[in-house]
Amino acid sequence: MLKIGITGGIGVGKTVVCRLFQLLGIPVYDADTRAKWVMHHNQILKKELTEAFGADAYNKAGELNRTYLAGVVFNNPERLAQLNGLVHPRVGEDFTDWLKAHAGAPYIIKEAALMYESESWRQMDQIITVYAPMDVRIKRLLQRDPHRTEADIRAIIGKQLKEEEKMKRADYVIYNDDKQLLIPQVLTLHEKFLAQSSAATAGA
């Protein structure tokens, strides 16, 4: 099965792009959403996180204390690496199970903000980076999350892999800059991936 990764920094519009692929009938694995689910439901991971970050990692109801964890790791690269080192392997296991459930699809998409940072790009056959300029991203995020300030947003963006680097590493770039139409870009790639999948099946 052809595996396509979609990545890009906060505010570029990865989710909108993935919804378009879903409308075309393509299964999409949202790594960020699944990571939250795994952190809530994987008992082994919950034990590991509690041991690593203390009892405050979960509240009395057994729910993940995201605010606490975010505060611990935000300005601490070592603790962030420790968190990712625990979470990413469990999400990888979840993705493997998900792949089995969608084995009949011509291709699948995995959406992940930390595609490169988590090394999950190595599992993909091709990578799409969604790009939007900084001013557009900030405008979108201020509208989406009015409790955040521009300084907050710039701080988050500053901790992510630079967009230029993501674009350089990608096989394809989708421009979601409010100037170029998204649907034609997605349709072009969809047809390309279908053709690649058909050719692979024929050659098998």
From TrEMBL:
Concerning InterPro entries, the annotation shows: Depp_CoAkinase, P-loop_NTPase
- Out of the domains of life, which is the source? Bacteria
Positions binding ATP in this chain are 11-16
One example GO MF annotation: dephospho-CoA kinase activity
Q: Which Pfam families does the entry link to? A: CoaE
Q: What is its main location?
A: cytoplasm
Give the keywords, sorted. ATP-binding, Coenzyme A biosynthesis, Cytoplasm, Kinase, Nucleotide-binding, Transferase
Enzyme class, one word?
transferase
Q: Tell me the pathway.
A: Cofactor biosynthesis; coenzyme A biosynthesis; CoA from (R)-pantothenate: step 5/5
- What EC designation does it have? 2.7.1.24
Q: Which Gene3D superfamilies match?
A: P-loop containing nucleotide triphosphate hydrolases
Role, per record: Catalyzes the phosphorylation of the 3'-hydroxyl group of dephosphocoenzyme A to form coenzyme A.
Task: Please give the family membership noted in the entry.
Answer: Belongs to the CoaE family.
Could you identify this protein by its name?
Dephospho-CoA kinase
Q: Which organism is it from?
A: Pontibacter ruber
The organism's lineage is: Bacteria, Pseudomonadati, Bacteroidota, Cytophagia, Cytophagales
Gene behind the chain: coaE
